[in-house]
Amino acid sequence: MFPAIKSQVLLAVGLAALVTYALRLGGLLLAAHFPRAGRFRKGMDALPGALLFALVLPSIVSEGVWGLVAAGLTALTVVRTRNPLLAMLVGMLVIFAARKMGR
Amino acid sequence: MKSDFVRGAAANLPMAASVAAYGSVLGVLASQKGLSWLDLMFMNTTVFAGSAQFVMVDMWTRPLPVIEMALAVLVINLRYLLIGASLEPLFAGRSLLCKIFMMHLVADENWAITMAEGRRGKASVGFLFGGGVTLFLSWSIGTLGGMLGGGFIAHPEEYALDFAFTAVFTALAVGLWQGKKDFLPWLVAGSLALLAHHFLPGKWYIVIGGLGGALAAMLGPMETAALEEDADVPGY
Predict the structure, then answer these.
(1) What is the pTM of this model?
(2) Segments making up each domain of chain A, as ranges
(3) Cα–Cα distances in angstroms (integers) from residue B32 to residues B26, B37, B53, B144, B147, in the given order
């Protein structure tokens, strides 16, 4: 059975896709006009890490103390083993155990 | 020598498992909201952005709030403007056509792995794209698997599957740490993100935190080497 995509789904998803792709390509094309040295460059170098940290920190904190424990052990595991998959499993295990105990 | 494409595809394999894990959560949610597998695959292929797709599925009601959805996706994915900008050195000298084709499969994971690889001087456009293909396949398998097997994991949060996203990005962030010069930018990024998360609706905290951190690095103290480099540039 092959379902059809409804026209409003086509519109909603299509618009979201257009917005996302425009941001991806737009950033790349705009950056050709950015300065390549000095303070601006320093900001761009710091951006990737700062962005990911801003992405995860609120989710970590909203899990409470166990979120901090999970994130700390995840970070420690990836530093020691260089294995992000193992690090992820360690973090998930802490949250899994914390939620089981909290019940 | 292995091609950069294969190296990139392989380097993203550890990510693929985690992407499939939180993809399965999206699949469960999508089936609960009444999306068909074709709707989901259409979204996976055209949008290809995890956190935005979570929010879209969350907003999925009849009739679809088309404009609100597009605005929410714009805010969540504003970071791709910054991600795209940070890839500019990697694409130096490439044709516009190459950029147009290669940028679609840029996600957080293959971008972060490519940036880390770039610090060792071994990143390339092929490496980035290989990673993108791995992620697209695992994202599709994970989301469809979650949708079809939805009955088996009705409550994904019980198994902490919703924390997979946070955990894997925590690990990726650690890989991007550049040493003590990152302390101030990360402190500012984290503080702003927590404040924005508390006081603002939606996902503004990602862009506000990231930009704040970059700004802190820009305005913060320069090392002596960088100052000397600056001195070579004629004043304005």
Answers:
(1) 0.79
(2) 1-33, 47-101
(3) 10, 12, 15, 13, 9
